[in-house]
Amino acid sequence: MDCKGIKSSVLHNKAVERTGLPLQVIKDWIGNYKKVVEGRKYEAQPQTLYLKGMTGYNCFVREKKDQFNDIADWAPAWNLLGQEEKEEYKQKAKEKPVVPPQPQQKDAFKRLKIIREHIVELEKHGIDVALVGIDTNTGSQILLGDGKSAAFLKSEDILQNLFAFHSLGTKEVPKDLKSLQQEAQTHMNKLYSKAVGKKQAFLYTNVKKGKIQVNGIPLDVLPLVPMSDYGEKKMKMILNIKEISVEVPTSPAYEVSSLPVNNAIETELNVKVQKAVEEDNLIGSNFI
């Protein structure tokens, strides 16, 4: 009985003698031929996504990142904290749910990255391109590009007009009313951005789904609906609003950390809630 390895070795040597090619080249040719004829002997396995829970450091960065100019400042600032402060952030991190990224969100990020790479290549050829848009899931702005076009699109007026147009749509209404709708929507976007500490368009769907609660809105205007559904009187009432606050329900169905709320606003909300509870207790004691 001939050994398969010895027989292959003999055939390899004969091929080397006849062709004058190196032995490794002969082996590579044979290997490639077998792959073509027999196909791959393995199947790609589905990838497993491993999630790591939020750490105290992650929680610290999320709260304080706006105070730092450079990412290199994060770690030194964390190291300067005392052990008790670090333990507090670790406890906060444990209380925050771990929500896996949605497949649609991951796919969107991949495609935006590809677009970003194309924009960079175009800039190398002297073509100044910028892209501006809105994430309709979060209301966040999307801006790609580093040239003068991108700097122009960063203008406050342009972004607010974009937010307003996106919220109002292209519904046919009288010109004067359309202008009032746009003005009221721009004002609402500014109030909302100030409340959450970040430039974002106000999404009425988040209110409708119960993802956020908005305080400071006149009762005559409630429930909040798109500006295109309001009349002139109610839109003028919205324009008179000076400030609003945003509260994220602590329901487990939503991630509390998905919407950044200013610490000052959060403290104000807690004071109002405590005051309301004390008033309820006082009223209840009067009836006993």
- Which term fits the overall shape? elongated
- Can you tell me the CATH class of the domain at 155-280? Alpha Beta
Q: Please summarize the sheet with the most strands.
A: 2 strands, antiparallel
Task: State the strand order across the main sheet.
Answer: 1-2
Query: CATH homologous superfamily name of the domain at 155-280?
Result: GTF2I-like
Amino-to-carboxy terminus distance: 103 Å
What percent strand?
Answer: under 5%
InterPro entries: GTF2I-like_rpt_sf, HMG_box_dom_sf
What's a concise summary of this model?
By secondary structure, the protein is mostly helical.
Your description of this structure?
This protein has 288 residues and is mainly α. Among the domains are: 56-95; 155-280, Alpha-Beta Complex (GTF2I-like repeat), CATH 3.90.1460.10. The protein contains twelve helices and four strands, in the order H-H-H-H-H-H-E-E-H-H-H-H-E-H-E-H. Helix 3 crosses helix 5 (83-95) and helix 8 (156-168) crosses helix 9 (175-196). The chain is elongated. The model is unreliable at 168-174, 251-262 and 280-288 (pLDDT under 50). InterPro entries: GTF2I-like_rpt_sf, HMG_box_dom_sf.
